[in-house]
Design goal:
The complex is a heterodimer of chains A (87) and B (188).
Chain A: H1 9-19, H2 26-38, H3 40-64, H4 72-86
Chain B: H1 13-29, H2 32-48, H3 59-79, H4 113-116, H5 121-132, H6 136-147, H7 152-159, H8 163-186
The chains are: A mainly alpha (87), B mainly alpha (188).
């Protein structure tokens, strides 16, 4: 029965990444935890991944507040181009 | 009953929608020149097909739907690029060790991880440079999911990919980013 719970490190780290966004299923989390029993490398990857997630979230927060506007001179150029098309 | 003809106000497009569409494009492609090109192409495509506009949605929604198509086309283009964009694998691809860590890619322990994780400008710069080093399509999906925090379903719909495809891309992007941050930040 437990054989079906056996996953590779590639699969384990994929689940771990998915879990960083809270989107791993219960079965996937179970498989991941069973994998940790025999794989310290993936366990360490997961711990590091959590640190990185914290960093990414901090970066996301500062990026999301930025509203990008098209530079005025590019708008003028675009207006010229479009007016040629309209003629 | 005769159908009323809907007229587009094309002269006002730039003033009314250029900023919104530029912002929409840049958060997805993270390149200002490319975002400008996509917006320009969208306006041209809009003008070409103006006669098809039926007024069922607003002008902006209609233009954004064209822009979305342009972004999918761009994603498909970068998705088909080979060679330089290929990522170094982290796991054995076949044999009895298939799916296990390649020895040279095994995560190393980090020096002073908690201290190094404190947010500062230098960290942001390093992180941005690591994200920029990702193959374009990985960077695009990673930014949409992690930095812009879009829903999985939304990204899949916008880029016309499956969710399993998305998770494979996220996984590859994150393992490559982890290695980059390990080499250039945590253990530098």
């Amino acid at each position: 029965m437990f054989k079906s719970f056996r996953i590779t490190c590639n699969e384990a780290t994929t689940i771990c990444d998915k879990n960083q966004y809270g989107e791993a299923t219960l079965l996937e989390k179970l498989k991941l935890n069973m994998h940790f029993i025999r794989c310290k490398i993936c366990f360490s990857y997961t711990k590091q991944n959590m640190t990185l997630t914290k960093i990414y979230k901090g970066h996301a927060k500062s990026c999301k507040d930025i509203k990008h506007c098209m530079p005025p001179k590019d708008k003028e150029l675009l207006k010229e181009e479009l007016s040629k098309f309209n003629v | 009953m005769t159908q009323e003809k809907v007229v587009l106000n094309t002269n006002k497009w730039i003033d009314n929608y250029a900023d919104y569409m530029y912002n929409y494009a840049i958060v997805r492609v993270n390149d200002s020149d490319l975002a400008k090109d996509l917006v320009q192409d969208t306006f041209f495509a809009g003008l070409k097909s103006a006669k098809n506009f039926q007024g069922k949605s607003t002008e902006r929604t209609w233009l954004v739907s064209i822009l979305k198509r342009k972004i999918i086309d761009y994603y498909r283009k970068i998705n088909s690029k080979k060679g330089k964009a290929e990522v170094r694998m982290n796991f054995y691809e076949d044999g009895e060790n298939e799916g296990n860590w390649l020895e040279e890619r095994v995560p190393q322990s980090w020096n002073n991880a908690s201290e190094k994780a404190i947010e500062n400008e230098e960290l942001k710069t390093q992180l941005e440079s690591c994200i920029d080093a990702l193959p374009e399509k990985y960077g695009m999906v990673f930014r949409m999911k992690t930095i812009q925090e879009f829903e999985t379903e939304e990204i899949c719909k916008e880029l016309d990919i499956t969710s399993s495809n998305l998770w494979v891309i996220i996984h590859r992007a994150r393992t490559q980013l982890r290695k980059c941050m390990e080499d250039n930040w945590f253990n530098s």
